[in-house]
Amino acid sequence: MLSRRITVTRVVCNLVLLTAASASVVATAQDDKSPPSARHRESIATNLTEGGVVFTFDDRNFDDWVRAIPLFDEFSVKATFFISGPIDAPALAAINQLKKHGHAIGSHSVHHLKAVEYFRQNSSEQFLRQEIDPQLDQLAEADVKVTSFAYPMSRNNAATDSALLGVFRHVRTGRQTQPLERLSEVDDLFIPAKDIARRGCLHAKGIDYAPDRPDRTFEQLDAALARAAHNDEIIVFYAHRISESGPGHFVTPDALRRIFTTVRQLGLATYTCDQLP
């Protein structure tokens, strides 16, 4: 009988401690008044072993992106859409449609400012407070988790990377290629899949205007994709509008279809930024 009483007492004590701990966690979460950028960063344990492509699109081209959903679905391509400006009604409507089809949402800042210049003239704290926190607050209210950030105009350096990688799992910038460079030989654009978790800043290749520019002909893009498939590497592409013409930077639906076809033929996976560890 004494043994049974001791056992019951221990169970009750454990339940009390567990309840207290749970209440403490809830209270901490409710009392956390720190800005979103200070408590946002998430990590995942998944490791990648298979090479693939990360397709990304920038700004606020909502009508184009939503119209292109059937094209993405046809090839089972999942992409990441980096939104600039407020997370207002038009943004939320597009986000809901894109997420229903398995796409991810990233931050592209509130005012589309050059981060390097802003850091020099102000501070990293001000940049996070003005350009990042408002978006993260609005996205959190819509139950949208964000793990990545794309630099406006690809303006980044070590200081901006350090500050933003404290908030996001990955940041994306652009990598310009020289006129005589072969895209498949630009090592900065290729990340071994097994190393992606250790590469916070991702260098991406622009595909707007493909295949009409010499650095993004189908021959160049095909060779880059073939390298990624052969070496189990990840390559990141970025574009803006998905349309037949401007205004603004754009890639045509036909060009995307051609690139998606090569991706399928090579058996390459497509990843959203949220899927990258």
Number of domains: 1
Distance between the termini: 54 Å
Q: Tell me the series of helices and strands, N- to C-terminal.
A: HHEHHEHEHHEHEEEHEEEHE
E-strand count: 11
**How helical, in percent, are the residues?**
40-55%
CATH architecture annotation name: Alpha-Beta Barrel
- Rg, Cα atoms, Å: 22 Å
Oligomeric form: single chain
Account of the 3D structure:
The chain has 277 residues and is an alpha/beta fold. It has one domain (48-275): Alpha-Beta Barrel (TIM Barrel), CATH 3.20.20. It contains ten helices and eleven strands. The strands form two sheets. Strands 1, 2, 3, 4, 5, 6, 7, 8 and 11 form a nine-stranded mixed beta sheet that branches. β4, α8 and β5 form a beta-alpha-beta unit. α9 (218-231) packs parallel to α10.
Brief account:
The protein is an alpha/beta fold. The chain is 43% helix and 17% strand.
Structure keywords:
277 residues, alpha/beta, TIM Barrel, 9-stranded mixed β-sheet, two-stranded parallel ribbon, 10 helices, 11 strands, 43% helix, disordered N terminus
Secondary structure layout:
Blueprint: H1 2-31, H2 36-39, E1 52-59, H3 62-67, H4 69-74, E2 79-83, H5 89-100, E3 104-107, H6 115-121, H7 124-141, E4 148-150, H8 158-164, E5 170-174, E6 191-192, E7 201-206, H9 218-231, E8 233-239, E9 241-242, E10 250-251, H10 253-266, E11 269-270
Parallel strand pairs: 1-2, 1-8, 1-11, 2-3, 4-5, 5-7, 7-8, 9-10
Antiparallel strand pairs: 6-8
